[in-house]
Amino acid sequence: MGYRILETDDIPGYLRERGHWDDVSDIRVREVSDGNMNRVFLASNSAGTRGLAVKQALPWVRVAGPSWPMSPERADAEARAYEQVARVAPDKIPAIHGYDGENYALVMEDMSDLEVLRTVLNEGAAYGPDTSRRIGEFVAQLSFATSDFGMPSADRKALIAACVSPELCKITEDVVLSEPYIEHEHNHWHPGLDGLAAEFRADARLRTEVADLRHVFMTSTQALLHGDLHTGSVMVGERGGAPVVRVFDPEFSFVGPIGFDLGLYWANVLVSQERARALGTLSDHGEQLRLSWEGFAAEFRRLWPTRVDTFFDDAYLDRFLDRVWAESLGFAGTEIVRRIIGFAHLTDLTTLPDPVPASRRALLLGRELIVRRTELPGPDDVRAVAAPLS
Ligand code: SR1
Ligand code: MG
After folding, report:
1. How far is the CA of 385 from the centre of ligand 1 (A)?
2. How far is CA 188 from CA 68, 168, 182, 370, in A?
3. CA 115, CA 243: separation in Å to the nearest integer?
4. Angle, helices 288-303/379-386, rounded to nearest 10 degrees
5. 37 CA to centre of ligand 2 in angstroms
6. Is the dihedral of CA 134, 379, 147, 306 positive or negative?
7. 200 and 363 in contact (C-beta within 8 Å)?
8. How far apart are the C-alpha atoms of 35 and 215, rounded to whole Å?
9. Among 33, 246, 335, 351, which is least packed by CB within 10 angstroms?
10. Which mutation among 63, 172, 175 tests ligand 1's pocket best, with the greatest number of atoms within 8 A of CB?
11. Regions in the chain scoring below 50 on pLDDT
């Protein structure tokens, strides 16, 4: 039949055809598309005892429409990433019930009992003790398993080839790792930031450091990444009285530098911290970078004795983690900057009564993380940088 774009009314028949739902006489469907790229539908029965989510990639960027074409094959990358994570961290992703490569559609667990982490934070809640540590563990589990430490060399080459994702990587190379530092039609910002945006475009040192990070992004093949690990890609909540954290939306997945995943999370954590500072609702925000790094490093070290290639010795592990740390800081800086003076801004800041002071602090912090990433050896050093900026 070929690729067809699904509408709300198509979902019951689609789920029946695909063998996910037999009796669709009692099915209700609503579209809950929220991200920049795709459509998502939730189907449930009237009693609310059964639910499924259907996510379909459109042949364009959803928020831009057909004027920004984009191959729906990104859904293949997402399905592949879920398969890899399911091997090593099945408790940290939604259950995947099926992938339909003809229609670029995933049928997965309905997570509507959980909430998007960004939403929870924007409403003033704290993270709680587990969220960031689990995110760090998620990055360690996926990255170790898909690195040359977790897979034989030949299998790794096959993985790298299978996971090449040129269109989605190009989005990141453009919107995160170059456009905010040049004149570009995608860029926009609050008029109160005109001066700082111009300073960033004129800052030669900053541009060279971003170029270095961009080249790392383009050439490093350390491990399979989520590729877009911001706080809108994380669901949190409780099930049976226990905290639940689920990472979703890995359509930007590719084999790249591990620090890109950690860095994106850190950037969003740090921006959320600036929101809370502005609103006087700071709670455990300042601890999250440290908790996620410790979760990552502890899990990576726990897995290290299982490495498939013992030529990589313990001293090399320390060096490797130091490199991941510094690159994570740099990528965090670039993500902060693009979310304020580039494309795809964050509601954390845009919904503040006056977004300018918090945005300004975040931009200055972002710049420091980019240019001083090798001079900040640990989480306390990042806190010290964040404190006096104004
Ligand atoms: C055109 S896509 C813009 C952004 O949305 C996605 O969530 C990624 O973060 C991407 O950079
Ligand atoms: Mg997304």
Report:
1. 28
2. 17, 21, 12, 21
3. 12
4. 160
5. 7
6. negative
7. yes
8. 27
9. 351
10. 175
11. 390
Rounded Cα distance between 36 and 34, Å, is 7
Structure tokens at 333: 């800086």
The reply to whether ligand 1 has any atom less than 6 angstroms from the CB of 36 is yes
Minimum-distance ligand 1 atom for the alpha carbon of 252: 8
Tell me, what's the pLDDT at 46?
93
DSSP for 292-336, please give it: HHHHHHHHHHHHGGG-S-TTS-HHHHHHHHHHHHHHHHHHHHHHH
Pocket test for ligand 1, best of 34, 37, 172, 271 (most atoms within 8 A of CB): 37
**What value does the CA radius of gyration of the chain take, rounded to a whole number of Å?**
21
The full set of domains in the chain, from first to last, is: 29-109 (3.30.200.20), 115-389 (3.90.1200.10)
Distance, CA of 318 to CA of 261 (rounded, Å):
19
Model-level pTM greater than 0.90? yes
What is the predicted pLDDT for the residue at 390?
A: 45
Q: What would the DSSP string read from start to end of 67-109?
A: EEE--TTHHHHHHHHHHHHHHH-GGGSPPEEEEETTTTEEEEE
pLDDT at 389: 61
Pocket test for ligand 1, best of 33, 34, 36 (most atoms within 8 A of CB): 36
Average per-residue pLDDT for the chain: 97
What number does the ligand 1 atom closest to the CA of 36 have? 5
- Distance between start and end Cα atoms, the chain: 58
Residue range 129-160, pLDDT digits in tens: 899 999 999 999 999 999 999 999 999 999 99
- Which ligand 1 atom lies nearest to the CA of residue 68? 1
Burial readout 342-364 (b: 16 or more C-beta within 10 A, e: otherwise): bbebbebbeebeebbebbbbbbb
Say how far apart CA 338 and CA 350 lie, in whole Å.
Answer: 14
Handedness of CA 297, 300, 303, 305 (dihedral sign): negative
175 Cα: distance to centroid of ligand 1 (angstroms):
8
